[in-house]
Amino acid sequence: MSLSQSSGLNPLQQAHAGLVHSRRVRVLAGHIAPWLPPGARVLDVGCGDGALAEAIVQMRPDVQISGVDVLVRPTARIAVTAFDGTKIPDADSSFDTALLVDVLHHTEMPEVLLREVRRVARRVVVKDHTLTGWLAGPTLRVMDWVGNATHGVALPYNYRTESHWRETFASLSLRIEEWRSDLRLYPWPADWLFGRQLHFLTRLTPEAPQ
Question: Which residue among 123, 172, 192, 195 is least crowded, i.e. fewest CB within 10 A of its CB?
Answer without folding.
Answer: 192
